[in-house]
Amino acid sequence: MSLLYYLKGSNEAVLIEEKPFASGGEGALHQILSPARYINHVAKVFHIHKSGDFLREAKIIYLIENRPKFDYTPDHETIIWVEQAIYDEKSNFSGFIMPRASGEKLEILCAPNLPKHLGAEWKRLSFSHEDSFRLRLKVCYNLASAIHQIHASGKYVLVDLKPDNIIIYPNGLISIVDTDSFEISENGKTIFPATVATPEYTPPEYYEGIRPGEVSIKNSWDNFGLAVIFYRILFGIHPFAASAVPPYDNLVSLGDKIHHGLYVHHYKDKIFSVIPPPHRKFDVLEEELKSLFQTTFIDGHENPNDRISAEKWALAFMSSPYLIVDRPLPSKNLELDGIISGNWYETAIDKAISELKLTAPIPKLAINSKGQFITETLNDYKKVGTALKNIAKFGGLISSIIVLFILIIGIFTDGLSFSSILNILSYLIMIITKIIFWFLTNPVYLLLLLIPFFMTIGKKVWSSFTIGFNKTIQKIQDSFAVSKGQKRRGMEDKQYTLFSKKLIIKQKIQEIKTELNIIEQVKNKKEENYHREHSQKIKETNILIQSDIKKESENIEQYDQKARELMKEEAKEIRLLRVEFFNTLKYNPPYSEISGNSPEQKIASLEIWKKRQVGSEAEINQLAKKIELELLEMSATQETKISEIKSRYDELHNDLVNSGKVHKIKINDIIDSATVKIRIEGKLDAVLLDKNYRKLLKTRNELLAELYVEENNMIGLNEQIKTVRDNLNKLR
Questions:
Q1: Whole-number mean pLDDT of the chain?
Q2: Residue 307 and residue 173 share a domain
Q3: Where is the domain boundary, 100, 129, 153?
Q4: What distance in Å separates the CA atoms of residue 670 and residue 672, rounded to the nearest whole number?
Q5: How many domains does the chain have?
Q6: pLDDT tens-digit readout, 196-249
Q7: Predicted confidence band at 366 (pLDDT cuts at 50, 70, 90)?
Q8: Is residue 358 part of a domain?
Q9: pLDDT above 90 covers what percent of the chain?
């Protein structure tokens, strides 16, 4: 079932799913079915008692007409803004359309551990991952940048800024949602107030009686909640979560602690009896970021204007050594991951099976026609080769029997002399030699070589003929099917035939899987028996190998540490250069008189700057052109200096990687000898990889190849069934 709404002005129909996929206090979110351009959008439909609110409609219209300027990221919406208002058939305001955000709520990063339901792509953001802190800083930067863009409009304050209203993706990008709840002001006067706030993210003034909807809310309100979110992202705990000493020991809720300024890292008083362990990570934070938290939560407690803005947070995160420089460590360049935890018994088996060419085949479910033709031709050559091999074996056996028969006759009879026997054998060998020579010199030999190729072509031609013939028959049948009912019956017959074929293939696939399951059980049992008998020896060998590898990997870890120090030095140099450049633009006239933080932004603002200047138009234009050229030259010089720094550190990092290669070579030698050692000491080839085991693997591989073919056939059949079903639906 679906619901129908209309766009304001054009009256274009918007079809949405009747059942919402999410619901809240104000309304529900529905998937849009049409028009096609809104497929990746959702419709928020307000509850009936909310939709008739005139102010709500006016606010949505205002948001549509006053969209802030946001940095654009391809295929990603950083701020989920209202795009279209929707109305019911009676022209009653019902809701609005906005882009869909399909990630996770930011709350998943605000606890000590990630939720268990998350997939492997989220593991990099887990606190236990070595790259976690850098990635979380990126998330903080992305959030600070987005909030700054909203505040820069001068019209919007989020008020209810909290992790539940922010969507996070595995790559660290974020999307801010619930934008229709923002407070909207113009010239310091509130037009559309926000009425909702969440206590854990609201500043102290909230507890002093200031309430959204009653007074105008300033950016400093958001700045408090933003700092709380940053703290939770970086450390997995709320900055006010701790147990206080008297007289604050009766303050239990986070709201009460915020009200009294009980920030965990308050530098004036020791007011806490128990501080949870996650707060200890704060000690290793770089000093600049520490000071921003201190200023917001301590100085900002008394004076809201002291709280750090989103823009300053963004600049601080951007200047962090973790984000300025991001180079792979020598261990990464040397692909050392996973080596220390290797199981050399399994590696030895895999290597042995690979040498025997009995590795399980890779599924080929999407082979193009050219690839399929080559594959089939090679298979035909293999079949012919196998047949010739069998013929040669049979011929050799017959020849041996003939020779043996002649020898027996010569021994037990007087009528056949030894010289006669030799003449007969010589004549027989000469005939065989002539036959072989004739095949090699006669053009017929070349034709025989092409037989498998022609066999494949013949099968293809026959297959094409069969398909074409069936299509022709189908067209003839369709041409006789004049009425809609006849066509439908023809389609139903075809559907029945396809379903019958599908059933046969399905049964065959099930039979193959059953056989494979039996083979796998036998294979596993044999491997378990071998491992049980040789487990002690395998374990001892594994320990020795691991120990040797660990020694070499510890040497590489020392290079990793040197690389980390180099990255800090590189980041420091680049940061000093950027700060100097930023200060030049910010404090040195005439650049300081032009709005914007970067040369590009200032160049874009030159037209506005020119309007404020006094003098002739020609002189002002000439000066503006000069400033533009200077800004471009400064930007180019800046990039050149940064490139020089990076090139210098490129060489230093390459030296570390090259030094680590010596140890990597030793590790590779240990690995190569490890598999050999396991195979020899565990008698792997003789005990496990015997004739029966090899036969088992060969049968498994043949069945797997057959399974992949049948699964490919099933995919093609399903596509045909879908086509027939679609045609049937059109006829109904």
A1: 83
A2: yes
A3: 100
A4: 6
A5: 4
A6: 899 999 999 999 888 888 888 999 999 999 999 999 999 999 999 999 888 888
A7: very low
A8: no
A9: 34
pLDDT at 63: 94
Same domain, residue pair 37 and 96: yes
Q: Which residue range is the domain that position 444 belongs to?
A: 366-480
C-alpha dihedral, 472 to 473 to 475 to 476, nearest 10°: 120
Comparing C-alpha atoms, which of 620, 624, 631, 622 is closest to residue 588?
Answer: 631
Same structural domain, 298 and 192: yes
How high is the pLDDT of residue 42? Answer: 94
Q: State the Cα angle at 301 between 299 and 305, rounded to 5°.
A: 70
Whether 160 maps to a domain, the answer reads: yes
As beta bridge partners, residue 105 has 167
Query: Is residue 40 within a helix (H) or strand (E), and if so which, with residue range?
Result: none
What CATH number should be reported for the domain holding residue 73? 3.30.200.20
* Residue 339 domain flag: no
Which tokens is 74 given?
Answer: 């391809």
Tell me which of 50-59, 114-123, 291-300, 468-477 is least confident. 468-477
Q: Tell me the C-alpha distance between 528 and 524, whole Å.
A: 6
Question: H helices of 173-252, where?
Answer: 204-207, 219-235
Please identify, among 100, 123, 143, the residue that sits at the C-terminal boundary of a domain. 100
| Helix, strand, coil distribution of the chain in percent, nearest 5 | 65, 10, 25
For residues 636 and 663, state if they share a domain. yes
Strand locations in 464-522 (E): none
Where is 178: in which H helix or E strand?
none
- Cis amide bond preceding 589, omega within 30: no
- Domain check: are 140 and 200 in the same one? yes
527-551: pLDDT as tens digits:
888 888 887 877 777 787 778 888 8
* pLDDT interval class at 480 (50, 70, 90): low
Q: Do 81 and 106 sit in the same domain of this protein?
A: no
Please say whether the beta carbons of 185 and 111 come within 8 A: no
Residues 612 and 554 placed together within one structural domain of the fold: yes
**3-class state of residue 7 by DSSP:** strand
Segment 445-459, tens digit of pLDDT: 555 566 666 666 666
For residue 458, the model assigns a pLDDT of: 67
Cis peptide before 35 (omega within 30 of 0): yes
In the numeric block, the tokens 């801010």 are attached to 176
Q: Is the pTM of this model over 0.70?
A: no
**Rounded distance, CA 92 to CA 595, Å?**
43
Torsion of CA 309, 313, 318, 320, to 10 degrees: 150
Instruction: Give the separation between CA 356 and CA 350, rounded to whole angstroms.
Output: 10
Same domain, 244 and 122: yes
Q: How confident is the model at residue 353 (pLDDT cuts 50, 70, 90)?
A: confident
First-to-last alpha carbon distance for the chain, in angstroms, is 19
| Domain-located, residue 357 | no
Query: DSSP for 563-631?
Result: HHHHHHHHHHHHHHHHHHHHHHHHHSTTGGGS--SSHHHHHHTHHHHHHT--S-HHHHHHHHHHHHHHH
Task: In whole angstroms, give the CA distance from residue 577 to residue 642.
Answer: 8
The pLDDT tens digits for 638-673 are 999 999 999 999 999 999 989 888 888 888 888 778
Contact 265, 140 (CB under 8 A): no
Residues 661-696 as b/e (b if ≥16 CB within 10 A, e otherwise) read eebbebbeebbeebbebbbeebebeeebbeeebeeb
